[in-house]
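Figure 2 data, in text form.
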Amino acid sequence: MVRGNRPRSPLDEPPVGWSLAEVARAVRAGDDRLTAWCLAALLGAGAALGALNLFIDGVLHDGAARVVYAATMLLLVVLGGVLAVRQRAGQHAASMLVVAGDAVYVVVAVTTTDPLLYAPPLMLLFCCFTAAWFLGPRMLTVHMLLVVGACAAALWSSYPDAAALAVQVTVSSAVLDLVTVGVFVLRRRVQRLLAHTQALSSTDPLTGLANRRWLIEQAPRMWRQARREGQRVAALVLDLDHFKRLNDAFGHAAGDEVLRTVAVALSATVRPTDVLARTGGEELVVLGLVSDPAEARRLAERLRLAVSTSCVEHQVTVSIGVALVRPGDGDVATDGLWRLVDRADVAMYDAKQSGRDRVSIAGGASVPRPRNSSLGTA
């Protein structure tokens, strides 16, 4: 389990909105923009096609009905324009637009001379597909009930016999609602597959921690936040002491269990905003924001203590190297991340050379150097 900015587990339930996974909160604005553009395009297309009826004789009732119809098409254009300008459409906006679409269908049916010919219930497929793709279960249920009412209002004048009307409304609304449910289930399935893929690409399968890819993805956010808040980015490189010796003595299964236990202990110790990742073997990296080296050392000491008290059967310790940087304007976050990790890595090896089970802070001028092969992962 990972605290803070962990990737979503493939077992987690995906959100019901257009956003595909919890980790996509960082790009929610982009998803809302895409939703707004899609809805604006659908509204514009619907208004353009509907406006054609204004130029065909015999489709619309004369007088006030024609004016109402024209005003309704104009309203669709205005709504689409507002969405295109705002470039933002969340669940609430999508819900209101779907309800408005159901109402627009009723207006179209009432203002046409022959609803069965010019406004059949299949026209509600536009609203049904939109609702199934953008709405959650609650509003989707509301829409499905409104479909029944919309079909009844549209077909009322075409079937004087109550029994015939009931049959036609039932058949039409049932087909539309079944299509809605089918698309909704398909959408949820796609979301689960995407969430599973996201988790596989961002999660270490052994420990459940974030992996190197996720660490890289989080670097730009860390750099921006550090510049905005006037803080420093701290990288802590953790390497378990004598891990190779443990593997040789007790087997890799015991080593894997130790890694999982350490991951749980570290996850419970890091701050919610920190990024904890396994970058390979017995090496882990913590990336977070601190105000000064003293705060970074306190965090590192808490992590060191958490590791030393985590395993009962196989006692393990950890050497931790710490490096800090104050991001500047124009810095490339990814390049800065690896320079920072390299400096912390040098400090970690200094901690091993100094006796292990300790914290070492990198100096400002520290640069990567070849690792001492005699240290290995001891």
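Caption note: Residues 22-201 form one domain.
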